[in-house]
Amino acid sequence: MKKKEIFEMTTHLDEKYILEAASEPKKNIKLKKRIITFAVAAALTATMSIGAFAAYKALNRESVGTFYESSAMDEIERKGYVSNQITENEHFRMTLDTAIKDDYNFLAVVTVKALDSYAEQYLEKLSEIATDATYSDTGEKLDGFAFLTGVDTYQKGKEYSMRLNVPVNTVNGSVDLSRPIHIEMKRDERNKTAENVDLFKGLNFDLKDIKQSKSVKFSSPSGDVLNVSELEIAIETDKIDVRKDESEISNDTFESINNISIHYKDGTTQSLSEKINIVAMYLTKDDRTVIIIDLRVLIDPDTIDYIEYIGSDFRAK
């Protein structure tokens, strides 16, 4: 990593920062790699409705391509991880393009379209949208949170692609992704206009009937475990403390994460150094750290022979 910038995420995230590390520009590479650390949980969120995914649906490939390579988008369409659900008010139109969950995360791509000058001004200033999240069946507030964030600079007049996450394990507790979840766009101090317009009024959706990704656990001889799904790699550890200074966290993690290599049963090897969207770190209620490596490619865990990480070979348990 050649450049590291630390900035405060929002006024809602006490002691929470985003560490953004952009690699050297490379041809056809659109994304900046970003580490998001959540030392004490609060919420950045979005509102999307997810229905059943029975029929084949085509993606908005321009928007989803912000986060996935072409081959991955082909697989997302083939496996039915597409939603195309829309929520809209006079200021914003939002489309949930993809929707998938594993044992550690609900993950989606959301396309945001500004419909007036108020929405344009918001996206020019902020790349996050706050929300509230509850279980649809009881109205109970989640023991966790959801967040919606973009990784690129908003370009006026164009659609803006954002990442929606609902992590399972945070300092607030655990989220049950088997239950329907209601996510409502939340007005806060950041999105107030001079005319006091509520930009997100009426934008709310229910996340339900989410397809489950295939997941396999890989362990090292020392007992460390990688939880590998089709869309990401999750690591639970007590060796990294997200409450450290952010520059210290980056030194601990970037090198090892960038050097992860997947060795497949067919003899091929894939380096993840240019396949990473976002690395998110969450402090759990029992003071462990969960690292989630969000990938630009889809992985079939059953085709993996072993994974090289932190000097060890991880094999399926």
Note down, in words, how this protein is organized.
The protein is built from 4 helices and 24 strands. With 317 residues, it is mainly beta. The chain has 3 domains: 1-54; 57-212, Immunoglobulin-like (Sandwich), CATH 2.60.40; 215-316, no CATH class. It is globular and about 60 Å long. Helix content is 11%, strand content 40%. The chain has helices at 61-64, 70-79, 117-125, 246-258, and strands spanning 3-8, 16-22, 33-38, 82-88, 92-98, 100-101, 105-114, 128-129, 131-135, 147-150, 160-167, 169-170, 173-174, 181-185, 204-207, 215-219, 225-229, 232-237, 261-264, 269-271, 276-283, 289-295, 304-309, 312-316. The strands form 4 sheets. The chain has a 12-stranded mixed beta sheet with strand order 1-2-3-21-22-18-17-16-24-23-19-20, with helices on one face. Strands 4, 5, 6, 7, 8, 10 and 11 form a 7-stranded antiparallel beta sheet that branches. A hairpin with a 4-residue loop joins strand 19 (261-264) and strand 20 (269-271). Residues 1-35 and 37-54 have low confidence and may be disordered.
Tell me the fraction of residues in β-strands, as a range: 35-45%
H/E order of the elements? EEEHHEEEEHEEEEEEEEEEEHEEEEEE
**Number of helices in the DSSP assignment:** 4
If you compute it from the alpha carbons, what radius of gyration comes out, rounded to the nearest whole angstrom? 19 Å
Q: How are strands sequenced across the largest beta sheet?
A: 1-2-3-21-22-18-17-16-24-23-19-20
- Please state the second-level CATH architecture of the largest domain: Sandwich
In the CATH scheme, what's the topology name of the largest domain?
Immunoglobulin-like
User: Sheet with the most strands?
Assistant: 12 strands, mixed
